[in-house]
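[INFO] parsing input record for Fibronectin type-III domain-containing protein
[DEBUG] input buffer:
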Amino acid sequence: MSDIERIVCKLLTPLQPILCFCPAGGADGSEVPPPQNVITKTLNTNYTLSWDWPPGAAGTHAVTFTTQYVPRYQLKFKKKKTNWITACNQTSHRSCDLTRFNLHYLGIFVLQVRATVDGQHSEWAQTEFCPDKEAALGPPSNVTLAPAGSDLDVVVTDPLTSNNTSMREHVPNLYYHVQYWERQADGQAKRLRINTTMVTLPGLKAWTWYCVRVQSRDDFYSKTSDFTVPHCMQTEGSIPWWNIFLYFLGSLLFFFLIVLGTIYGLFRCCKTMKDVLNPSDQMPSHLKKYLCSSPGSDIPRLLTPDSESELLCEGVTICPPPTVLEIHIPPAEELAAPPSGLEPNSSVRHSRQDSSSSGDSGVYSSGGGSSSSSALKHLSAVRHNHMGSDDIFKGLLDPERVNLREMTAHLKSQPEVADEGVVDVCV
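[DEBUG] output buffer:
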C-alpha cells in the first residue's frame, strides 16, 4: 500500500468500513502488532486483565492500549449493534482493573484490548472470561483459636468479596479443609473437613502447643485456595496438685518479703526521725540550765541578740573541780605534851603580814621549833587556796597570838573532806 493510499484512508476514516480497508501500521510503516498473552488475574471478585506487547515494536513512538468488554450473549444478536463498554481508554499500562465494574459472578464476558501507535491501531485481541469458572478462590479472611479445656476451638471467617461481603453468597457449596499438628512433633498433620465456620479439634493433649491452618474449597469447579498462615496456641487442662502447692508457696513467700520489707522500712524511718528529733547524746546539765527556758525543761531556748548572756559572756571554759587538800592533825593529847627542847608554857606568836608586802602569812614560835613552823606555813597556804577553809581559820587565828591547843581542838571537830591530796601536819 502506497503512501497516497494511506493518506486517502485517513481522510476517509468515517467511511472506512464501506469504502476501504486500512491496515494498521507501525513507526516504520509495518502493521502494529496486537497485544499477546491476554489473561485475567482474579481472586474472589477482584478481576484484572493483563497482556504482553513487544517493547521495540513502537520504536520512538508512545504506545497506548484500550480495553473493552461486553456480555457474550449480546454478540449473538447480529442485527443489533453491539454496545462495547470501555474499561480503560488510551492507557500506557499493560493491565486494566475490571473490579469496579462489578461483573456478575455467574456471567460470561468477552474482553478485548488493542494497541495504538502514532494514531495507528492494532487488531483487537479478545478473550472470554467467566468468573464462576475462572476466578480463583481466596483463603479464609481470618482464623481464630480459643482454648476449650484440653481441646481447641477454631473459628473461621469466610473469604470476602471486593465489597467486603461473604463469598458464600457466590459459592454456596464452600467448605474448609483444616490441618492441625503438634508444634514440637515432626509427625504428619491431621486433616479435618468442615462446612461451618466453627469447629472443636478433638483428641488433643493437655498443656500442649498445636498449630492450625485452613484452606477454602469448592468441588463444583475443583477450586482450592492457599492455606492461611499457621496459628499456634497451647491447650489447657486440670492443674496438678503439686503445681498449685508451688504457686501457693511462691505467692506466700512473695507477700512475706513485701510485708517484711515494709516493716523494716518503717522501722528505719522511725529510728531516723527519732535520732533527729531526740538524739541519744544529752546536753550537759551546766549548759542545759542556760539554754532551756526552765531548769526542768529539755526544750532549748533560742537566744535573742540582746540577751544578757550574749552580751556579758564571750566564751565558756569548762575547768576541772579544784583539788581539796585533807589535813590530818594529831589529837589534842599528843599536842599537849611539848616536844623536847620547848617549854610547856611557850606560846606561838602569829603575825599576819600585809598582803601587799609579802603576799603570804607567817607563823612564829618563841621556841623556834622547825616542825611547828612548817605546820603553820602549810595551814596558811591552804587558807589562801580554798575559800571554804578560810572561813574556818577566821575565827581561830588571832592576829596577835593563838594557842595551839585550842586551835587543834577546834579543827578536830570539823568534818574531813576526802580528796586526792593528803598532808599530815604534826606539831
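[INFO] Residues 1-28, 341-372, 386-402, 417-427 have pLDDT under 50 and may be disordered.
[INFO] shutting down worker
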